[in-house]
Amino acid sequence: MNENDITVNLAPGSKIDLVDFENLTFGNVFTDHMLICDYKNGVWEKPVIKPYEPFLIDPSAKVFHYGQAIFEGMKAYKDENDDVWLFRPDQNYERFNKSATRLAMPEVPEEVFIGGLKKLVEIEKAWVKKGKGNSLYIRPFMIATGPGVLAAPAVFYRFMIILSPAKSYYSGEVKVLIAEHFSRAANGGIGAAKAAGNYSAQFYPTKLANEQGYQQVIWTDDATHTKLEEAGTMNVFFRINDTLYTAPTSERILDGVTRKSLIEVAKREGINVEVRPVLVSELIEAAENGTLQEVFGAGTAAVVNPIVGFSYKEKYYELPKQENSVALFLKEKLNNIQYKLAEDTFGWTVKI
Amino acid sequence: MNENDITVNLAPGSKIDLVDFENLTFGNVFTDHMLICDYKNGVWEKPVIKPYEPFLIDPSAKVFHYGQAIFEGMKAYKDENDDVWLFRPDQNYERFNKSATRLAMPEVPEEVFIGGLKKLVEIEKAWVKKGKGNSLYIRPFMIATGPGVLAAPAVFYRFMIILSPAKSYYSGEVKVLIAEHFSRAANGGIGAAKAAGNYSAQFYPTKLANEQGYQQVIWTDDATHTKLEEAGTMNVFFRINDTLYTAPTSERILDGVTRKSLIEVAKREGINVEVRPVLVSELIEAAENGTLQEVFGAGTAAVVNPIVGFSYKEKYYELPKQENSVALFLKEKLNNIQYKLAEDTFGWTVKI
């Protein structure tokens, strides 16, 4: 995208000096600028980069009433030469437009999504800190701004990108609860879309899990609750007898970029990976007969998140301590690609 | 609620004279005022009635990213004495707070929800037109205004009420498609909540149905697609052999106020009603052997909406013309209660 195709109104000053980069909590601090691009009368208008600030919206905007809202989560990393890199932005762009279609929203042009975020991140380069664990979290999203309380797709939409400096997502030991009643997605529903509505469904069951001492829920299929699907904001992997298992993506399961990248890295490293439905009963059996080695979540915010134990039908299963954790090995390998500390043999990184 | 507990800032003038009440399309025109009540630090602030206008919101507000948004749909009716009546507002209030709990949002106090809407409708009395078919559609809703892109419930919320003058919802003949693949709700999901996210899931399948000439979809259970559940924005009734059938409410099916009111009216009128799961195969069989008499939707916006035919597995089933339509009979009975043209033996109407 030609840089003249984006209107840029820079903030008079930066708030970066007020930010304590050593003590960030996830997603609370935003950079100086944001990108806005409006869709009106069937046409995407010229994107605008402007100071981050609240914006005006009609009380009847369909995003508030009918949940037309989708997003992506991505990260930018700074290497030792102060260059800033994106990780597989094409994958997020593709998934974003798939989500858009599923929610009857317009597709966003590549020059707005990719071109816009490159330009925005370039302007905010100082917010990307060097060093492993540091990154700039990128949140592209689209909402239905069109007014009216008729239950039908909106006519006006707004695409935005906001940026938040991040350290690693989770801290402490993560214990999970395996869902026996609640679920996150229906067959023929929107579970595969990164739709805002999918997340609101998870908060209450997750709150109940939190109250019992579990940080996350591993969702099971809603019809039988026998298949392990994904965790709150992550796909999930199981290491049993030195093989990694993860559920295939489906209408109910998000096609995670970290998930598929880990599968490729694992294969390159000679680790057995099987993508197939994983039953709760298999997990319990493996935990009981000692073949279950690791369980971990995979997602952009968390990258890789080892799980220390899980609960099912009120029984808690502690995972064995791993001297050679495959989860941490894969995280290291993937991080090395993302931070340009190892050769990117996959061609996944894109320089800003 | 004491009227002094609501701050009222009246608009300098009214736009009512600019509105063509004979040619309203649903949900496009809003009255002069709206109610806003913010929830901060665990406390509901004083509600404010002020001119209807756009409001400022942070780009990271959780409603945009994680879909914490719920609503209700209600109507106010004017009788021949110019008195304005609500219909079973207690039912909407109760359901609203159930939705709130399921989405990990705070409950709204009765004096804010009921007290606020009575005060607001009283101020907007001139917008409620007399005569059957005319009403004031009331849209209470709550959104997560709290900022931050961490996938967790927000800390700040906003409850609002907006009002839109309405004529009858649908026009023309309604044909429906019975869902064979797509679905609106999961077991253990949020289908029973009036959550914004549930509606966004329906737009794309409904668009596909529209393209084939069907105005609505009748959803089936997501696991087997054998049970008839509800239509896009309505519960659904089937009249077979002079008995009315409708699905029981469940985690997947909304507890519609019109649905349950129609059941009570039908029973009072001596009509057989069976609340039980209705199979697609039963409907097809009844259509084929001539015992299927009527299919109709029931909802606040539509009240009662007769369906003229349905399609399943690419076969279209035309419903027989009814000389004595139970759908229209029940609509008349319910409307008479709502418009105070018949005695309200149930005690459902509440005067403003």
TrEMBL record, chains A, B:
GO terms for molecular function: branched-chain-amino-acid transaminase activity. Its cofactor is pyridoxal 5'-phosphate. It catalyses: L-valine + 2-oxoglutarate = 3-methyl-2-oxobutanoate + L-glutamate; L-leucine + 2-oxoglutarate = 4-methyl-2-oxopentanoate + L-glutamate; L-isoleucine + 2-oxoglutarate = (S)-3-methyl-2-oxopentanoate + L-glutamate. Pathway: Amino-acid biosynthesis; L-isoleucine biosynthesis; L-isoleucine from 2-oxobutanoate: step 4/4; Amino-acid biosynthesis; L-leucine biosynthesis; L-leucine from 3-methyl-2-oxobutanoate: step 4/4; Amino-acid biosynthesis; L-valine biosynthesis; L-valine from pyruvate: step 4/4. The keyword Transferase applies. InterPro entries: Aminotrans_IV, Aminotrans_IV_CS, Aminotransferase-like, B_amino_transII, BCAT-like_C, BCAT-like_N, BCAT_family. It holds the Pfam family Aminotran_4. Its EC number is 2.6.1.42. Keywords: Amino-acid biosynthesis, Aminotransferase, Branched-chain amino acid biosynthesis, Pyridoxal phosphate, Transferase. NCBIfam families: ilvE_II (TIGR01123), PRK13357.1 (NF009897). Acts on leucine, isoleucine and valine. Belongs to the class-IV pyridoxal-phosphate-dependent aminotransferase family. This is Branched-chain-amino-acid aminotransferase.
